[in-house]
Amino acid sequence: MTTYTGEDKIQRCSWCSATEQYTQYHDTEWGFPVDDDRRLFEKLCLESFQSGLSWRTILEKRDNFRNAFDNFEIEKMARYTENDVERLVQDAGIIRHKGKITAVINNAQRAQELITKEGSLAAYFWRFEPEEKSTYEAVSTSVESTEISKQLKKMGWKFVGPTTVYSFMQAMGLVNDHHPDCHLKPKIDAIKAQYKRPT
């Protein structure tokens, strides 16, 4: 991954140059630390739906996903029935993949169990924050994402492979994978230096 300079003369990670929506997501969300359980669950669900597809597809449909899945409220999704599965499979506004739909409903139930055990999803995931890399390297998995994936699968979660989990780690700020020349890299490093990790 490299960087590009936009019309505003700001240097950003090159991947976000594809669409204005990407740029907005890059500038306001990607890599910023998140500790709200609903937002964390939403991000992990969307990464699960993204598997095998482009992130652009997910971003374009994100509002539809939120409407269809009760804004990813864990308690509501955990109570979904077969009628909800059928409703979602018929919803043209989202990714109508029955396996992924049933997986995220299952994951809502597993999330409730994890929150009961750990206090919050945030407390669990932030435990896996890795050391800051000494050199920049674009990767799709890590030791931590592999371990999280292994643990979640053991707890019964689905569609949470190491690559999906690593994308989630990037999205929620567990790792700051902005390119060293991107204007947000030092800004997010500074935010994380002051950030109080959930326990």
What is the CATH third-level topology name?
Answer: Endonuclease III, domain 1
Give the N-to-C terminal Cα separation.
33 Å
User: What is the rounded Rg?
Assistant: 17 Å
Mean pLDDT: 96
Q: How does the overall form come out from the CA principal axes? A: globular
Q: What's the number of extended β-strand segments?
A: 2
Q: Tell me, what is the CATH class?
A: Mainly Alpha
Strand order of the largest sheet: 1-2
CATH homology-level superfamily: Hypothetical protein, domain 2
Strand share of the residues? under 5%
Structural class: mainly alpha
Helix content: 55-70%
Uncertain segments: none
Element string (H = helix, E = strand): EEHHHHHHHHHH
Written account of the structure:
Helix content is 56%, strand content 3%. The protein is mainly α and 199 residues long. The protein has a single domain, classed as Endonuclease III, domain 1 (Orthogonal Bundle), CATH 1.10.340. It has a two-stranded antiparallel sheet with strand order 1-2. A hairpin with a 5-residue loop joins strand 1 and strand 2. Zn(2+) binds at residues 13, 26, 178, 182.
Brief sketch in words of this structure:
The chain is mainly α. It is 56% helix and 3% strand.
